Amino acid sequence: METSTMPRAADARRLNTRSPRPRITGSLRWQRLARFVTPYVFVLPFLALFAAFFLLPFAYTLWLSLFAEHRSGLGLGPPQVVWAGAANYVKALHDPTFWDSIKRVLIFGAVQIPVEMLMALVLAFLMDSALIRLRRFFRLAFFVPYAVPGVVATIMWGFFYSPGFSPIVHSIVALHLPAPDFLGPNTVLWSIANISTWEFTGYNMVIFFSALQALPQEIFEAGRIDGLSEVGIAWRLKLPLIRPALLLGILFALIGTLQLFNEPKILTSVSHAITTTYTPNLLAYNIAFVQTNYYYGGAIAIILGAITFIFSFAFTRFTRQQSGGL
Asked: How confident is the model over 52-68, as pLDDT tens digits?
């Protein structure tokens, strides 16, 4: 009996002296924790900047918009900041100048966005075509306007629009034609549209051209075998395949239209037709920083952000329904 029990006891001791399980379990837990934390470590810089430059200013603006300045008596004393609730929003929604500025930028976008997208598409198709030589040079040349800062571009076009300095106006007058008024009440909006189109057509062209370069060439070879011309290939094959890129460009242009600010703000120095309420952003800027009414200006900014979100969401939803998505 003793000889039979001793090997079993020795086997049990050998089993107990094998590699410890807690170390393996701890290592696995550390690996799982590292896999869980690593993505958030990489995203953390973006989240920190997003919170610092978007979420916190948005929250602060939303908080300010709920207050208002109140002056008692004859208004000679210092103003008091009082709780206003939704009063600033009600005032903005009943302000005709605010809705006039919204209507103006919508008219602006209804004309400028299709023109810009069409020009960008044509240039992208030309750059993707084998018929064009020096494509690298032309791609760079078309993209250069976007590389020019918007302020510099507007100052340059303001020089071209000014009647006393514009070489365009002088050339037209030299042909004994009436001098055009690029900065008048009826034309300055389209002068701004021209600047915006000049700035961003090359940017959208690069997006569309990149989408075209990612397409499989076998589809186009099959189209040529079926007898399609280059125009037919561009219209029937390329355009439907780059539809997501086109919709993205339209969405960015729509957001930029509702936030139009730089061009009209700079052109106010050369055109009396641009008022302080010309666009929603100009209206909010002048109320907040010129009239120092940060509370009402913040309410207008919040409403403009909500309108931009609604338009963007509606456009995205509509395009998904048209493409059969959810």
From this structure: 998 999 999 999 999 99
